[in-house]
Design a protein that fits this description.
The protein contains eleven helices and 16 strands. It is of the alpha/beta class.
């Protein structure tokens, strides 16, 4: 009996030791949500070592160089400086005397590709107007790369990058996409590498006008906010489920692609772009963002931004504005021409945007109008400072200012050579480079992007 007792103890001890030596059971790695299932396939077009000499340079961050030199090499800005800047051997040199060099213009609010030309109903793909909350749709899935508007923006407006947004019918309109303004067969071939996604939201008249009825919210502005808050509550609960799953494993929560986007916002991966005209509504949306732990990146249209410019500055929120487009509906009625310079003066991030296939071709002129209005009211604004409204601030709003938006060594060579001061009505882009590739030259008709759509259709007698 005694020996059997010791034997039992020995067996237990050996089994315990084996259990300690055995490797722990491995848990299956959680399946994580892929927030970028349609990645960019963009590759820069080939370029040549290029030097622009003797031009007036606006660096995009408020700096100016008279008789400056800009060196483009291997797709990036290699150097920016004065006349004594070294010129690499073998470089193609351009005399910029009497001309101006700037970073390419970036439009933060465009619907090119989603509302392409010609503007027919069959091309109307910007608003999924089937419900006030449509966060599951993505603008890139409507973009038609053959839209002639892309090349018009390039050759007439010097636009090298743009954000394409869903329309503003919905409180939650879906994801935006940032594009390089280059010809490509697919939208993925245009997608700006590494640019964060955006989420389009809307305030005010549009959602309540489109959806308001006796049986559906929202009918009112308070309905807009109530439904917005209720949606963020659902998004928080969804994110908590996935956070727990990613931390602890177990049964995978059910996927919801609308909530995927909203969870991405709450995680700081997706930037809010909020269509909002009135100052009071912008202030409310800033409070809603604080309630649910996200940040409003930019208010778009922002006709009354001048009334709360200090709040925008304090919250680090940009305002994308028109120079003088106002009064076409009640919430756009209290606009003033000094809106952009007043927001800038308050230390907030001021941006000139288009929201229009024609306006995108003249953003430099829109900025010139705002600049003149600011000066008339006594603000000391220089030309070189105003260029931040067109390149660096938009790049900041899109989360790509580390890559483009200013002429700094190491940044993408997205550059425009203008034939005159770009704030002149008569100025036109002479040459446009994207990642150092010459995409347009006014002196060479062959260097002008033309989409397949513009080439026409087979005529009588043509091979079918």
């Amino acid at each position: 009996m005694k020996l059997r007792g010791w034997g039992s103890v020995l067996v237990v001890a050996l089994l315990s030791a084996c259990a300690q030596l055995a490797p722990p059971e491995k848990k299956a790695a959680p399946i994580r949500i892929n927030q970028d299932p349609y990645p960019s396939t963009y590759h820069r077009y080939p370029g040549a070592l290029t030097v622009i000499r003797g031009a007036t340079v606006f660096d995009g961050e408020g700096g100016k160089i008279e008789g400056g030199t800009v060196v483009l090499a291997d797709g990036v800005i290699q150097a920016v400086g004065g006349a004594d800047t070294p010129i690499p051997a073998g470089a193609y040199q351009i005399d910029g005397t009497g001309k101006y060099v700037t970073p390419g213009i970036i439009d933060v609010h465009s619907h090119l590709g989603d509302y392409p030309s010609p503007g027919t109903q069959s091309h109307s793909d910007g608003n999924e107007a089937t419900g006030p909350v449509r966060a599951e749709v993505w603008a890139e899935h409507s973009v038609w790369p053959q839209d002639p508007g892309f090349s018009r923006a390039l050759i007439n407006g010097g636009v090298t990058a743009l954000q394409v947004l869903p329309g503003s019918a919905n409180l939650f309109g879906g994801r935006s996409v940032t594009l390089k303004n280059v010809p490509a067969r697919t939208v993925q071939g245009m997608k700006f590498p590494g640019a964060p996604y955006g989420l389009k939201m809307a305030c005010g008249e549009n959602p309540k006008r489109v959806y308001g009825s006796k049986s559906q919210m929202p009918q009112t502005r308070m309905g807009n906010i109530a439904l917005t808050r209720a949606t963020w509550i659902k998004a928080q609960a969804y994110k908590r489920k996935w956070d727990k799953y990613n931390r602890d494993g177990g049964a995978m929560p059910e996927r919801d692609i609308a909530m995927d986007t909203l969870a991405g916002v709450l995680a700081g991966q997706i930037i809010i772009h909020n269509h909002c005209y009135r100052a009071d509504e912008m202030a409310i949306m800033l409070d809603v963002a604080k309630e649910f732990g996200y940040k409003v990146g930019t208010f778009h249209h922002a006709v009354e931004a001048y009334k709360i410019a200090d709040l925008l500055a304090a919250n680090g929120t940009c305002a994308a504005m028109w120079a003088d487009w106002w009064g076409f509906k009640m919430e756009a009625y209290d606009g003033i021409k000094e809106n952009i310079p007043l927001v800038d003066k308050a230390g907030a991030c001021a941006i000139v945007h288009s929201d229009d296939s024609n306006g995108i071709q003249r953003l430099n002129q829109e900025a010139a109008k705002a600049l003149a209005d600011g000066r008339r009211m006594g603000l000391n604004l220089s030309d070189e400072h105003a260029w931040i409204w067109l390149s660096f601030n938009p790049a900041k709003a899109l989360g790509i200012a580390d890559k483009t938006g200013s002429l700094k060594a190491g940044k993408m060579a997205d550059v425009v050579l203008w034939n005159a001061n770009p704030f002149s009505t008569y100025a036109r882009p002479e040459r446009v480079w994207i990642d150092g590739a010459l995409m347009y030259f006014s002196g060479n008709p062959r260097l002008r992007p033309v989409s397949d759509f513009e080439l026409g259709q087979p005529g009588e007698g043509d091979v079918k």
